[in-house]
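Page 47, continued from p. 46.
Same chain as before, 329 aa.
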Amino acid sequence: MKTSHALTRLGFALAAPLLFSAGSITTAQAQDFPNKPIRTFITVPTGVPDVVSRMLGQQMAGSLGQPFVTEPRPGAGGLLAVQATKQSAADGYSLIFTDGAVWGIMPALRPGSFDPMKDLIPIGMVMTSSIFLSVGEKLPVKNMQEFIALAKAKPGTISYATAGSGTLHHLFMEGVRSALGINILHVPYARGTSEALPAFLGGNTDAMVSSLPVIEPHLKTGKARMILASTQRRSPMAPDVPSLADIGVRGESFSGDMGYLAPAGTPKPVVDKLADALAKAVKSTEYIEKLKAFGVEPIFRGPEEFSEIMKSDLARYARAVKVAGAKMD
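Result:
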């Protein structure tokens, strides 16, 4: 017994310096961080992610004293950017700026591709937005109630365009279809919104799901009417458009969220330092005004809250993909 206790004490004595040493390294990393440029992988070469990551990077560089470099890694539905992040050192110098389609939908569309809760660590969510169902001028409905009534009266006759199978746009409408028990036709366009919008405006589909900036110019001309938002609350960018809760669809929400994540294993003090700089950046007037111009709501959710949002997204989108029978284009 005495020998056992002696060995235990010896084990603690040997381990203690290693534990303190590891803690000291982590603390030193945080104190010294950053001492070189930080790169941010994005999943598309242009558009909102590129503009926003550069803008926020500039703001964070002012707080942290090192430049942020945006590095596009498009392809495979965002998985190339995820892989680049996963394979980077977990030291805070490589981040990914991406959306819920990647951390929430992709694991359900491509099981085994990656586990966002194990492979990545959240830093901060910086924006959210609704997407919208719009109907064309030729469809004889003025609101969502009339849309539902027509879909029930003439099942399988109303068609809606999206930017592709398995997209947030597709899952939103399939969730609505399932919840309301209506039969509508999905028309996916592999080339995305650039292909879907002309088809919709040309009358090839009765309806379309899109972001606000895409459809807004056509609301003014009467070519389109927005009749439903994809979230439980009404969008502050379009407060007159009914939400899912308004039409009795509860427990579902399909929002365009974006945020920063780092490789799993990045030390907490480094994550916290990045999160603090990010929280300051999203309060800038330039950022707020730019996002409003994009039809997007600026917000900030720190690492813990962002992590809970990701967990919720994974469960919800897994159900939505199953309901939709969605597959990768």
